[in-house]
Specification:
Layout: H1 2-24, H2 31-50
Length: about 50
């Protein structure tokens, strides 16, 4: 049960970090690449916690 809560917390923090970074970048042309990279990094972190 603890792993489910941990995974949810990681996903939520990743989503929040993604949103904050996109807002800080003011939606410039490069923000799509940065947000995509953050999403991939977040996915990798979640995948690693699954192992």
């Amino acid at each position: 049960m603890k792993r489910i809560w941990l995974r949810s917390a990681i996903i939520l923090s990743g989503v929040l970090a993604y949103r904050v970074a996109c807002d800080l970048l003011d939606h410039q042309v490069t923000d799509a690449y940065v947000c995509g990279a953050l999403t991939i990094i977040g996915g990798v972190i979640v995948a690693l916690t699954e192992l």
